[in-house]
Amino acid sequence: MFREAVIYRLGISRSDVLLADDRLLSESDLLYFRTIVKRLQQNEPFQYIIGQTEFCGLPIKCDPRVLIPRPETEELVQWIKENHSADEPLKILDLCSGSGCIALALKSIFPSSEVSGLEWSIGALDLSKENATFNALDVCFIHGDVIQSNTFTGLQTSSFDIWVSNPPYVLRSDKSAMDPNVLEYEPHMALFVEDNDPLLFYKKIAEEAKNYLKPGGELYFEIHERKGEGLKSLLSELGFNEIELSKDLQSRDRMIRAKWMIRSNLFEMH
After folding, report:
1. What is the DSSP letter of 175?
2. pTM of the entire predicted model
3. What is the three-class DSSP state of 251?
4. Are residues 97 and 230 in the same domain?
């Protein structure tokens, strides 16, 4: 972590850090590093302290307006990458976009695609637009609440190839097991759902996706590791098929994919 601070502050590469043992630091540099140590001792996340992190090779600005992008979310993006060729002209919507990291990563991977991000928090929306400018990526970020159906009325029906989301999914009852740096600094509205309705955001997004995905369009979610089977059942009940759970690098169910195919009922034709 300290190495990352040195790289960020001094503007040098990781290899240069190994060769910088005899480099003299200025008084302002020393003050900067002391301040970082003090803030870390107060449980403040390192990414908020330096104001950015790396996500799928992109520098992403982050502060307490947004969740810090996680490695599991990079795995979700990687899964989409594995299922499509880079030159496909896809139409993609990232819901509960936060910092915009998913949408921006997908735009960098699929440059011919039309990528949008939908976010309720005005603060997060402002930061996602900053990140788009910072990375010179043409992504349109839209203000809207995925829980409200009127949010989607301006979208063209049956036009999207992919909907992807990392919505709030941490149960409020899990709070006691969470680290202080998460609870004290990261936005709770982007983290938590009520225990009595843990799949709220998934259900609302999937119900709307049926109207806006093309036949054969895909829905991707990052999920709570204990809710995979329940979400598979929900998506099946809503009419999705080819539903697939995927594990993260720690062998936990953390992602799900489903396709929207309108099934014709042959018996109704007779």
Report:
1. G
2. 0.89
3. coil
4. yes
Q: Rounded to an integer, what is the distance from CA 170 to the centroid of its chain? A: 14
Residue 151 domain flag = yes
182-192 residue pLDDT tens: 999 999 999 99
pLDDT-derived band of residue 31, with 50, 70 and 90 as boundaries?
Answer: confident
Contacts of 120 (CB under 8 A, 6+ apart): 96, 143, 144, 145, 146, 189
Handedness of CA 37, 52, 82, 241 (dihedral sign): positive
Greatest alpha-carbon span in the chain: 85
First to last CA, the chain: 67
Residue 119: exposure state from Cβ atoms within 10 A (0-12, 13-18, ≥19): buried
The number of folded domains in the chain is 2
Average pLDDT of the chain to the nearest whole number: 91
